[in-house]
Design goal:
This protein has about 325 residues and is α/β, with parallel strands linked by helices. The protein has twelve helices and eight strands.
Length: about 325
């Protein structure tokens, strides 16, 4: 593993390579089986990495190909791993009785089967729920943690919306369900300026409208799983470098929710990305990739033009605990 890049080295490398990095050296698709459920992962290998492999766990509507647009910034830094866990993407259907611990165990199974060392862990939205449980149960597998769109509890607007979405799907009202999904995940246009808001809203709506019956069945089961099992357990989190960020106008998992989660993670830092909401990794793809890449290669994340000042939410909590 090569030493961490400095900002100047990254700029020089980009200049030498041009605006478009070379294609990946090797892209590998793996079919795996865990506890009777088939699932798949995608590995973009980097033979001369600057940091540990990066595992990207995305939201419930994302699959292992959803991060291809981020690879041109992330793949030059390290091996990048994405996965369709059981119950999601192209993997087998997973009944809702299987909870978050099961999915965390599937992540560990994938890393063992593919021979991966400790990973830099990114979890966005539902990926944060699985990623946090994975870090709690398998701390020896985690090198750094980055969470986005994170919360310790299911947002009220989500728990209120789930029955309406499920009923709309049962009645075959796909259009109404798609409209409800867009309203749930994206901020109100009056909340503040969000980059590509209209374009991303159309993309999300189209994505939902074109889902197959299998995908819709998995989506319904996903919501049942979350409502049944919840999204958080107060277990110890490994004391590794950690960052939590969200869009400044995220109305689903608000910045305050992100701060609350960051305060429970040893020495975690928190920031918001400007002009973005819950779908920050889509609306500001390059900036989100830059932030993840900087943190995972130990480069500075303070004073970035696209971020608010970086906070340390757990510092006050640690001081208060020590005083008591």
């Amino acid at each position: 593993m090569r030493p961490a890049l400095t900002t100047a080295q990254v700029a020089l490398t980009t200049q030498r390579r041009g605006s478009t990095p070379p294609p990946p050296e090797q892209v590998e698709e793996r079919s795996l089986m865990f506890e009777g459920f088939a699932y798949r992962c995608r590995i973009v290998r980097q033979s001369a990495p600057h940091t540990a492999p990066l595992l990207l766990l995305g939201g419930s509507s994302q699959n292992r190909y959803s991060w291809q647009g981020h690879e041109k910034w992330l793949a030059p830094l390290c091996t990048v791993i994405t996965v369709d866990l059981p119950g999601y993407g192209s993997a087998d259907f997973l009944p809702a009785r299987y909870g978050i611990d099961f999915l965390a165990a599937a992540v560990q199974h994938m890393l063992v089967e593919t021979g991966m060392p400790r990973v830099n862990l990114f979890g966005g939205c539902f990926g944060e729920v699985v990623g946090l449980r994975f870090a709690q149960l398998y701390p020896e597998s985690v090198r750094r943690i980055v969470f986005c769109g994170a919360a310790m509890r299911l947002p009220e607007i989500y728990t209120e919306a789930v029955p309406r979405l499920a009923q709309a799907l049962e009645r075959g009202e796909i259009e109404a369900a798609a409209d409800g999904l867009v309203g749930l995940f994206m901020s109100n246009p009056g909340a503040g300026q969000v980059r590509r808001h209209a374009a991303v809203a159309r993309l999300l709506h189209h994505q939902f409208m074109t889902q197959t019956p299998d995908e819709l069945r998995k989506a319904v089961e996903h919501n049942t799983r979350l409502v049944t099992h919840g999204c958080y357990e107060p277990l110890p989190v490994p004391a590794v470098p950690a960052l939590v960020f969200t869009g400044e106008y995220d109305t689903l998992c608000t910045p305050q929710m992100g701060r609350e989660l960051a305060a429970t993670i040893p020495a975690a830092r928190f920031t918001t990305v400007k002009e973005a909401d819950h779908l920050v990794t889509v609306e500001r793809r390059q900036e989100a990739s830059d932030l993840i890449g900087r943190f995972c290669t130990d480069r500075p994340i303070d004073d970035l033009p696209y971020c608010a000042p970086v906070e340390s939410p757990g510092a006050g909590l640690a001081c208060a605990t020590a005083y008591r």
